[in-house]
Amino acid sequence: MHGMMMNRPLRIADIITLAEKIHPNEEIISKTLQGTLHTTNYAEIALRSRQMSKALISLGVKMGDRIATLAWNGFRHLELYFAISGIGAICHTINPRLSSEQMTYVVNHAEDKLIFLDLTFIPIIEAHLDKFPSSTKYVLMAEKEHMPECKIPNVICYEDLIEKESSDFEWPEFDENTASGLCYTSGTTGNPKGVLYSHRSTVLHALIQCFYNAGSFSPKKKILPIVPLFHANAWGIPYSAPISGTSLVFPGANLDGKSVYDLLEKYSVNSAWGVPTVWMGLLEEISQRGGKKPDGLEEMLVGGSAAAKSLIEAFENMGVRVIHAWGMTETSPLGTSGRLISPFSELPVEEQRHLQTSQGRKIFMVDLKIVDDNGKRLPEDGNNIGNLYIRGNTIAGGYYNNEEASKAAIDDEGYFGTGDVASIDEQGFLRLTDRAKDLIKSGGEWISSIDLENRAMSHPDVENCAVIAIPHEKWDERPLLVVVPAEGKKPSKEELIKHLEGHFAKWQMPDDVVYEDELPLTATGKVSKLTLRQKYENYTLAS
Ligand code: AMP
């Protein structure tokens, strides 16, 4: 027997419609490309999104069409999130840091009908005009007075589109499983794979986020998303913030430590979200300002890569709560939540810090399991380490127009294979050992690069580091520690090895240490171990 409750479709447009009524005056502040600060609010965002939806329809956009954005975090990008999905079209957020080959692939694979771009990215489009579909049209996300001369044919001005339309428009109703967004993950090999979100998955994710990160989301709170709107929906912020009435401060193109600090301070931002590399930049800026944290900053959410204990401690010691979470583009992205709740939040400080280095705890509606190489489930005892699989309403069930990758991604029980290697303890804490492809296999045993990096990072003269596998005749692979020394310092190999000793078995210790001025980053701002492995593939280990 079925229940007798109504079954209304979950729709993204309802999020901004609600915000317009309930939180109309909560502010959205954006750093513009001209360096000025632009202030708007949810009422205006909703109104302009409706105007843009009408403009899209006038341009011939239909349900299911892919409409791309190539843009920084700012108010127009937020409007597009609602305007595009609101009419049943698909918002394809392009990562501007993709290689030319990858970008050519994703635009052609998605068959983007329109591309909305920030002025910064004109050169990228100009360089790809003959590589993208000839039918693709381009819209510059700018006011009339900032429209430059460029080689893009028939380029349209965003504000012209808005100006021509009234806001008298109701978003249509359609099935909640209608596709709403498309985000490609750039694997290390092969072409990028498209994750196709639905209205249902997106709304459910927004609600889950509002629950597990309730501390970040409420009226009078301000979040600064450094995580880009082109990376896994900026971790769901664009949806959870309007539901909850949280203000947003968008950094635009300025993501360096000083710019981020200034914005956090100026607007007394409560919560900032981003990958560890960004927080290392902010930490450096804070230390240059005599250790003073930005006023108002209460917490930061770290994800995308493992947050080192030293990073967590540095911010916690300043009174900034660090929430370490794990997720993937394929998981919408929240997969586990690292916000410590009672009784864990009452544990002695050192025990809390240890838990904070884990990737957080299981959450509602998201099932996790770890399995051995034969697919057999392993006990969740904190000791067994296995391949991590995940299942739920907010998890990708396959990839857009890619049957082969879709088949390979899902196991017999309907779980998605993350490619991560991890343990899960009795209390549901997930602890990542590595990306499967970054693990170091030495003499048949696995060595965790994350553990070694964590310890190395706690050396005061180490600014950043990575541990990678070097091919080895006898042992198959051995670990190499790549260190970026802190300014004006150069810790010796002996000193660094001594710092690691006692924390690892002898066979787990790096064979050698090399120094770099900086570490190469991926398109999403993570350390690119692939690039490092390629650089050092012929390296001869000292021992
Ligand atoms: P992406 O889809 O680009 O966001 O990448 C997802 C991958 O980033 C995951 O499969 C993990 O390997 C890695 N990742 C995400 N969050 C964390 C974290 N907190 N600690 C370690 N690795 C992470």
Low-confidence stretches: none
What is the quaternary state of this protein?
single chain
Relative strand content: 15-25%
Main sheet makeup: 7 strands, mixed
> Which ions and ligands are bound to the chains?
adenosine monophosphate
Mean pLDDT: 95
> Helix tally?
16
- Span between termini: 70 Å
Measured as a percent range, the helix fraction is 25-40%
Q: Measured on Cα atoms, how large is the radius of gyration?
A: 23 Å
List the strand order in the largest sheet. 2-1-11-10-12-13-14
Helix and strand content put the structural class at: alpha/beta
User: What is the number of beta strands?
Assistant: 25
Shape: globular
Give an account of the 3D structure.
The chain is α/β, with parallel strands linked by helices and 543 residues long. It is built from 16 helices and 25 strands. It has a seven-stranded mixed beta sheet, with helices on both faces. It has a seven-stranded mixed beta sheet with strand order 7-6-5-3-4-8-9, with helices on both faces. β15 and β16 form a beta hairpin. The longest helix is centred in the N-terminal third of the chain and has 17 residues. The chain is globular and about 70 Å long. The termini are far apart. The mean pLDDT is 95. The chain binds adenosine monophosphate. Adenosine monophosphate (AMP) binds next to β15, β19 and β20.
Write the layout of secondary structure elements.
Elements: H1 13-22, E1 27-31, E2 37-41, H2 42-58, E3 66-70, H3 75-86, E4 90-93, H4 100-110, E5 114-117, H5 122-128, E6 137-140, E7 156-157, H6 158-164, E8 179-185, E9 193-198, H7 199-212, E10 222-225, H8 237-244, E11 247-250, H9 257-266, E12 271-274, H10 276-288, E13 299-302, H11 309-317, E14 321-324, E15 326-327, E16 334-336, H12 349-356, E17 366-371, E18 386-392, H13 403-409, E19 416-424, E20 430-435, E21 440-442, E22 445-447, H14 449-457, E23 462-472, E24 476-485, H15 493-500, E25 512-515, H16 529-535
Parallel strand pairs: 1-11, 3-4, 3-5, 4-8, 5-6, 6-7, 10-11, 10-12, 12-13, 13-14, 24-25
Antiparallel strand pairs: 1-2, 8-9, 15-16, 17-18, 18-19, 19-20, 21-22, 23-24
Helix pairs in contact: 1-2, 1-8, 2-3, 2-6, 7-8, 9-10
This protein binds adenosine monophosphate.
